[in-house]
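Notes from the pairing session

We agreed to fold both candidates in a single pass and log them together. This is the raw record for the first candidate, unedited. Please don't reformat it; downstream parsing expects exactly this layout.

Candidate A
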Amino acid sequence: MAIIKPFRGIRPPKNLVEQVESRPYDVLDSDEARAEAAGNEKSLYHIIKPEINFPEGTSEYDPRVYESAAEHFQMFQDKGWLVQDDKEQYYIYAQTMNGKTQYGLVVGAYVGDYLNGVIKKHELTRADKEEDRMKHVRVNNANIEPVFFAYPDNEALLQLIARYAQTEPEYDFIAPIDGFGHKFWVVSNDADIKLITEEFAKMPSLYIADGHHRSAAAALVGAEKARLNPNHKGDEEYNYFMAVCFPASQLTILDYNRVVRDLNGMTPETFLKSLAEDFDVELKGEAEYRPQQLHEFSLYLEGQWYSLKAKQGTFDDSDPIGVLDVSISSRLILDKRLGITDLRKSNRIDFVGGLRGLGELKRRVDNGEMKMALALYPVSMKQIIDIADSGNIMPPKATWFEPKLRSGLIIHKLS
């Protein structure tokens, strides 16, 4: 069963939150972070993208960059831009996108639950990315950014959250760039804290939705601290890491699409003819066409959109991984026809989150950067949970959750 605890969050004063908060570190590059932080010394990018504190071209993996993150984290606290709460408590974080609101509980998730599989993952992680985030956690002695979990719907928690949602939030702002709404409440009432802890203790599993590398890094640093502490007791703060947990039914998963640089030596005509062996191929014309169902794909090639419907017999409904559209497209299109066998390492393919729309796929093909684009039908939360429960791992670049968590609303210190 899931073990969580309240914690003394470190967060900006109400009047500074919009100056401090930022997008997550991994959704923008150094140049974008430098531009967004320009003229704002309070921007969290100085901590989560600390290469912007150095001349352009400085590697984000330079040891000085990590040290700069820690220096700025301390400075933010010294100047009162980040202040630690006096009491261990939970927090509620609501996000609104396109009129739909999802409500998350900010908790301290137990490192042991990650290590023993109570916290379930559906993606593989890369050792180099884990180590980068581990260095960031170590040098700051804190989880600066939260990870994104899902939990099975729970009526008692839904009622508690609904009650807080009727009150004045601590933070309430519209984020720049995407225009999504963000609200934040503090749960300091002892009875409510007890209820949250007890309800999570009834849950057999929590599920990582977004932030697999941050989850791994946080858990591994926590385990490392326990191993190196000769007086380790098990109740230290480093035994927990910060997560925002949302009811599974509230989450929105968008399509995660592919753009490819070449057709592996084939002409467009030869490529389309080859696809017809495994797919029902239908020309849709110049207007953007989005997949309407599972096992249907949208192909953009030479200024035209096509529907590709996988034929019966090309996938096995009893195989939880093989039946996924990311698996079907990888096996029958990217691997079999285009020779792209490793999505993580190939420089012939790139990935576009669904929030950017089909227009972004069209743009990257029309400008000559890419030869073709492939749009997929979104994975469902049920598919993710079923795969995680079965102990399987989804293919890479399978899910794109929106809205992303804003960083800087709350930080968890490990001591």
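Candidate B (folded immediately after A)
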Amino acid sequence: MNKSTKKKVFWAVFSPLIALLTVWAVLKQNENVSPSVILETVKGADIPLLTAAGVCAFMYVWFEGVAVRTIAKSAGYRRNRASGLIYAASDVYFSAITPSATGGQPASAYFMVKDGIPAGVSAAVLVLNLMMYTVSAVVLGVIALVTDHRAFFDFSAPSRVLIVCGAVVLTLLSSAFLLLLVKGKYVFAVLRRIAAAVKSSRLTEKIDRAEKDYSSCAAMLAKDKSLLLRAFVWNFLQRASQTVVPMVLYLALGGESRYALTMFSRQCFITIGYNFVPIPGAMGIADYLMIDGFSGVVGSEAAFSLEMLSRGLTFYICVTVSGIITLIGYIAKRKEKNENDKT
């Protein structure tokens, strides 16, 4: 077992442990909140709004699939909705069980390559998509600041530090992805040196082919202004669909509509605050920020329940469903390969 495989296995085992510890810690913080209390709270919720929250949580995965398909189509590779869903689900699942927010990109690239999209083109498509995904978070933060700047100051000092750090890191990442899109040759130069160091001519040839595909695709994508706008819109909708879930759940549980915008603004800041943390799914940090942010509106006890329900939908259930979709996609690709080998 090589180092990369060992790392994946470690995080696949360690992530569920972190999840269990996080849930235990949240429940321990407020002993008035228990699974039975949360279940009773859900039973009394508005069903249409509760359903809407579930749909929004799923649309987070769906919109990413649409965004990747849109960019790939502009690069000359039209793929169906099912393929887009698999690209997105694999990204969401592996990002959640690895300490890096970009941990799902190789998984998406794997399925894209299996679908006949060259590795270089897949890389360019995913870099552009990741850039717009990151920019969308920053834009949502700006919207929250403009519409309800007081929400930021209601967070505790540690939370405000996390939010500011997150905003800085996400802005820098957006710039880095843009630089990578237009100056990818430097990355390939490093890869070529590695190939030379291990004296692998075959690897060097693969890198050369990938660079050629990447460079031509990246140049084409960067010049397509309408594509950049469409990619941003789909990524913005992806971010917004997840960000709006706590607000919808708040209303479903009987919250006052006059505080709806405040709940949305707070979740925007929360998302920025945990997005850069190198922990699978930002478990622990995201929970802390949500409880801290929501307590000022609904009180401590209700904030715990709302946080558990929100994270349950947007993270735990979403990741589980994404994992199932990824597994189905993998099995389908294996079956397709076996059938092709027979013919």
